[in-house]
Hints:
326 residues; alpha/beta; five-stranded parallel β-sheet; 12 helices; 7 strands; 41% helix; 10% strand
Amino acid sequence: xxxxxxxxxxxxxxxxxxxxxxxxxASARYKNGDLPGxxxxxxxxxxxxxxxxxxxxxxxxxxxxxxxxxxxxAKGANPKLMLAELFAKARGYGKGRSGSMHIADVSAGVLxxxxxxxxxxxxxxxxxxxxxxxxxxxxxxxxxxxxxSGTGIAHEAMNMASIWRLPIIFFCEANKYAELSxxxxxxxxxxxxxxxxxxxxxxxxxxxxxxxxxxxxTNHAVALARSGGGPTLIEAKTVRWHGHYExxxxxxxxxxxRLNPKYFDPIxxxxxxxxxxxxxxxEHLAEVEKAALEKIRAAELWAQAxxxxxxxxxxxxxxxxxxxxx
Length: 326
């Protein structure tokens, strides 16, 4: 499938712009005290989610991590229901009780963001095994960061996926920091993707600023998995503009990174390449960007006006409770 054409470029650009607008709204609202709990934003990483998820079909799945807004949006989650959850409203995906780190929409193939580091990989393997056992044509992408690459579940998941040749792509967003720790202090090699050879499946490192490159690499990996060829480990080198969480003072970053966090900008990167795509002009991108912002602003106002959860439903959907006997 050709990637560098007008329609595909506009579709990828639209997704990136919606992710950015969503994260900017979430950031502003959090700083204003309107959103409870913690939020972890993916500003600067838009090309990873957009490029990877564009290769999937409706019946494919993703698993995500604590920085999962972009993944969920790119796979088809509803921004209204996502913002409702962030506002802790009853109409949110988790009825206002799950928060930012646990967005899920099974109908869209979003098996859930996850606040436990590395668990997206184990959940992804489970989903891929289910696909294989049921002999379905689906594929799973499990998103994680380079910090999660050092967890035990990462080894177990990739080893098991290799042994059973599961239809899964392990997608590492290497954004330079694991929480507060620089890449070089906790990863002993230059590229996380180099570890794939030890498991016996392909590993590819890609420029996470280039949405076309992300799409092409992931599209190949998805085709391989769908045909029974087993897993691939993709590492997208990217940058998160904000801290680990909103409010993080980011004192661990260099002065250059703190003063100019947008030096790595996948949306600007695509704008700069508009002349390479036949039939695409800068004004087309401006129209898409405006529409994306209007869509997210409308979702924001809709979500803010919703009803708060009734305290009486606090124990709904709870499957276990503390024993009341001796």
